[in-house]
Design a protein that fits this description.
By secondary structure, this protein is mainly α. It has helices at about 10-35, 45-55, 60-80, 85-100, 110-115, 150-170, 180-215, 225-230, 245-260, 270-275, 280-285, 300-305, 310-330, 335-340, 340-345, and strands spanning about 105-110, 135-140, 150, 235, 240. Strand 4 (about 235) and strand 5 form a beta hairpin.
Length: about 350
């Protein structure tokens, strides 16, 4: 390179300052996006404006701007308890933006708490009450603050409610099946079937969520039998060992309470017994239909349960599942209005 083509010291230094500013701007943008959105305080527009005007600023103005940006970043980090390396926030932000055309991005609370922020309750006030398996929903095409939380149990409970409402509409207050329109009756049967399946998906999601949270919060101190039961595994044989649903209903809350130094007694909880017995038999008849005779009664039990499914029966099951979860939350010393508000308002 000729001497004429060499950049002057001032130009080289300005280029370095520009790079620092652009790098810091992306970090600031990532922090805003992940916590309070780019619309808050018009952060997104302000950042874009700085990028556009950067080439026209003097060296002194750039140095002053760089210091202001770094001070703002410091304030954001302090406010939200950011403790990861700068590159990690930028990498996550880029990944969310990159998949924006495919849909939303989901980042688990456990990951946020362990990897990124120690005070994320400034973004979601209910954060300390949320189970660690929930996920924050990020829209890579939005500048709005992240507002949505995905929780499997709430997801399936919402489906069960919608399906039950559709079943009630199809039922139309007509109890005699002979007086119901054939298409209307078929819709009723389909909605009742789906509502039962969604209700048990809700219960399984809740119970497995309890196990997951306890497993991760107390992993290093859990007795091996409890560790294996919560993770449905056999450590000695290194294989999966499933836990029966009816056992989970009573056992998982006990294990969680034990790990937290508490006690739970569901022996007198009617809703727990209903979902673990009558409800479970109904679910099995729908999820695993079979013409085989019941070895105890000698009847076609599953077929009878399938063809005699009633609206009030499913309504009772949906309500029992709701009551069971609220009861467990209370016995664990939690406030259901904070931990499962979607059930309290149901």
């Amino acid at each position: 390179m000729s001497l004429a083509a060499m950049p002057s010291p001032d130009n080289a230094q300005s280029s370095k300052i520009n790079q620092q500013i652009l790098r810091d701007l992306e970090l600031m943008e990532a922090l805003y996006f992940l916590t309070q959105g780019l619309k808050e305080g018009d952060a997104g527009s302000r950042i874009e404006g700085i990028r556009a005007h950067l080439p026209y600023l003097s060296r002194g103005e750039r140095l002053s701007l760089r210091d202001e940006i770094r001070q703002e970043i410091k304030g954001l980090k302090t406010h939200y308890g950011a403790f990861a390396g700068d590159a990690e926030y930028v990498e996550l932000y880029r990944a969310i933006r990159k998949r924006a055309d495919e849909g939303y991005a989901y980042v688990e609370k456990l990951v946020i708490d362990r990897t990124f922020f120690a005070a994320y309750d400034w973004a979601f006030p209910r954060w300390p009450h949320m189970p660690c398996h929930v996920a924050v929903v990020f829209d890579g095409k939005s500048v709005e603050k992240p507002r949505s939380i995905f929780e499997m149990a709430a997801y399936f409970h919402g489906h069960a409610k919608v399906l039950l409402a559709a079943a009630e509409k199809a039922h139309g207050g007509i109890n005699d099946v002979r007086k119901r329109d054939e298409d209307q009756h078929r819709t009723l049967e389909a909605m009742l079937y789906a509502s039962v399946c969604a209700t048990f998906a809700f219960l399984e999601a809740y119970l497995n969520g309890l196990a997951y949270d306890c497993f991760h919060r107390h992993h290093d101190v859990l007795p091996l039998p409890d560790h294996d039961e919560l993770s449905e595994s056999n450590s000695a044989e290194k294989r999966v060992r499933f836990v029966a649903f009816e056992k989970k209903v009573f056992r998982y809350p006990q294990l969680v309470a034990k790990a937290d130094g508490q006690k739970v007694d569901l022996s007198g909880c009617k809703s727990a017994h209903l979902v673990a017995t009558e409800g479970k038999r109904l679910r099995d008849a729908l999820a695993h239909p079979s013409p085989f005779l019941d070895t105890k009664s000698g009847a076609h039990t599953k077929v009878i349960l399938l063809v005699s499914l009633k609206l009030h029966q499913v309504g009772d099951l949906v309500e029992a599942a709701r009551d069971y979860v609220i009861t467990v939350e209370r016995q664990l010393g939690r406030d259901p209005s904070q931990t499962v508000p979607w059930l309290i308002s149901a």
